[in-house]
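Researcher: Please generate the 3D structure of the following complex. Treat every line as part of one assembly.
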Amino acid sequence: MGKRIHVTTTINGEPVEFLCEARQSLLEVLRDVLRLTGTKEGCNNGNCGACTVLLNGLPVDSCLVLAVEAEGATIETVEGIACGGHLHPLQQCFLEGAALQCGICTPGFLVAAKALLDKNPNPSERDIRFELAGNICRCTGYDKIVRAVQDAAQRMAASR
Amino acid sequence: MATIDQPRSETAGKQYKVLGTRPIRHDGADKVTGRAIYTNDMQLTGMLHGRILRSPHAHARIKSIDTSAAEALPGVLAVCTGADFPDVKDKIAELGEGAVNLAHLSANVMAHDKVLYKGHAVAAVAAKSPHIAEEALKLIRVEYEVLPHVLWVLDAMKDDAPLLHDNVYTEELGGKQSDKPSNIAKHLHFEQGNVEEGFAQADIVIEREFKTATVHQGYIEPHVSVALWNQDNRLTIWTATQGSFTARQQTAEVLQIPVSNVTVVPCEIGGGFGGKISIYLEPVAAILSRKSGRPVKIVMSRAEVFEGTGPTPATFIRVKLGATRDGKLVAAQAYLAYEAGGFPGGVIGPGCMCVFSCYDIPNAVVDGYDVCVNKPKTQAYRAPGATQAAFACETVIDEIAEKLGIDPIEFRLKNAAKEGTRRVDGPVYPRVGFIETLEAARNSDHYQSELTGPYRGRGVASGFWFNVGLKSAASASVNPDGTVTLVEGSTDIGGTRTTVAMQLAETLGIAAEDVIPRVEDTDGVGYTDVTGGSRVTYATGLAAYHCGLDIIAQMKERAAILWDCEPDQVEFADGTFTGPGQSATFKELARRLLETGGGIVGRASVDGGGATNGFGTHIVDVEVDPETGKVTILRYTAVQDAGKAVHPSYVEGQMQGGAVQGIGWALNEEYYYDADGRMRNASMLDYRMPTAYDLPNIETIIVEVPNPKHPYGVRGVGETPIVPPPAAIANAIYRAVGVRMRELPMQPHKVWKAINSQE
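Model: Done. Output below.
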């Protein structure tokens, strides 16, 4: 075991420090060190998107980021999407639209969809399908996920 | 999205308060906030991390295994090999969707003397971190004697093929066995009528051959198990399984310990589709836990999931159909050879039962072969065996319809299976809804619309799958505030907590939100079979319904105490109990249970009463790029008979998800092997499953022909939707560019080659 490295980050708006080995991925540290297990492991090689988090506002596969690279970074995970006692409109629309079945890909989709809506508040169906192509869902066939993101965008626009 | 009610039985036309509505699923908040606990989220004090060493060879004898260097690595606390597993005798165990020989299961979980496929487990390590465990695997020395291997079903059936097992003989109908060992483990034969006479009556006979590739279920959650072998010899296993009771049974048998010493805790599960019924990691984690005295977690890598678990088989199928000039099918013959993988017992049985299951054909014969090859032991995948068979049959159906100049839906309507049709393997259908799905497809906006443009075509195909029924238990306790806590044993993979709870709510006349469903471990609920076979909403729903009836009967007795009358003077309707001059709602009476003798628990344990049937018809428009052969899905509509759609959103979700898995199977997905028998695309990048960008929205039409075997008319819906897509797409490609595709997957290079060899 190598010497542990001290990393300082901001996760879901709170300052967080942790120790990690150089070989540990951000996914491993989030889940096993910080116990933020909402971020899921599906393939551990950047192909399924289940471990998507926002790193300085951009969606990344946390399995492909070394934890030491997070030094000074701002990280958002699925645990940070809901605001206080309220679900984010994306979460609410996923529930109302039955946009999840087994739910293992859902955290990654929510984080990726949030990144999309942060950047493009009024995406077309094609925009949504393109931006979410890095996230694989094997249960839903994507139809209800795409519609939930469209609904959330409309709901957020209406409340602005 | 449309729902078409077909009022044809005594349950039709019933007005429901809860069924058919779309409440938010009970576990929803946990699943959108990241709070839901999947097996990999389990953290136990002192937990170790296990890793498995796997065979690099497709077929080899294990000469020796030296684990001493791995054991000596600091941080390693236990190592195990096949030598740590007890001898397990041949014994068949029913697992709900298929059966398994326990001796083979044991040898599949950990190789004993031979490895039968690349990825076969040969040793395992538990260490303080997954990284140390990984390093330790590299220190294990295994000496192999490499044997010749065989990778394709037809090659494995040859007399001079490399033999996987010297104790497997061909089992014929009636239990007769071949004289010498064979890779062909089983030959199935079904027939009805007289097939020679049938073909003699035909004006048109078409016979075609088809090949399909090995594909994986592709669930996003890898297999993962946590085991704690406690010092009192009790074993607790948290695991990603479709069936906690069958996982308990398999684990106990493989470890040769009493079933009651094992508790299986089904955590939330990240997809299964049939691939998480067999055990893999559970007994390995258990042995490592016993040896180390610590809890052990093993998570498979994605490559291990592809190479070390059960995909669904590659197949060779020949289908011959004969029809009269006016479009009546008179004879059918099929030859199906399905790969079983490294051990016997693939999905050939349902393949044979399903190949002609959509049609009323008087004369038919079906032969099926279960064949061992040096690939992973195959497993169920959503309507196991049916998709390959339908690809073959539905493509020939389309060709006959086209040659006779009959619309493909009209041709199917002329020959559709209906009440009284005898399937080739024997069963006679009760009321089924196939004709109604065809009519709904024909009348749909999609089918009625015009498809224009070059290289575009529209295809149609139908599909069939069973509802296996099987056993489910449930109990439900009435809370003082009028809510009801429902305890069930069915792992919830796609919203079944809610569809089961809704049936209890309907029975009790309360809101879906007033039922609190809980999925319990094997010590917390009665025996419940797997979540599979399209059975949970049907059979566990049936258990919930009977729990409701039990509660109502008990509450009538309590009302009688309060109202000083006889229980049979109390009536229950629309959520209200009525007695002589008195009435109380369910909630009002619930509040008074503690003063009338204590709480009430309803309970039920049901046997779902055998198979019923689900039919679907799909329509697809494709565009083929003549330069590259790439097929694009332009529009897709799935039609299915749901009996009664309990929660229409989740029925639509099953139809959409199944259709998209079928689209992947049709166009992209396959295990690609090199000459040495090594899978070369064992990652989600190279084993390409459909993404959101590859697809249009999937339109759905739910047809409701009530199931006569269920009080609310429910039919299972989960599996049928994967069956039609490959054939529907192949038929659409033909209409687009004039070539008949008879091999899956239909990747661009194959379509391109077909187009260019045609000209």
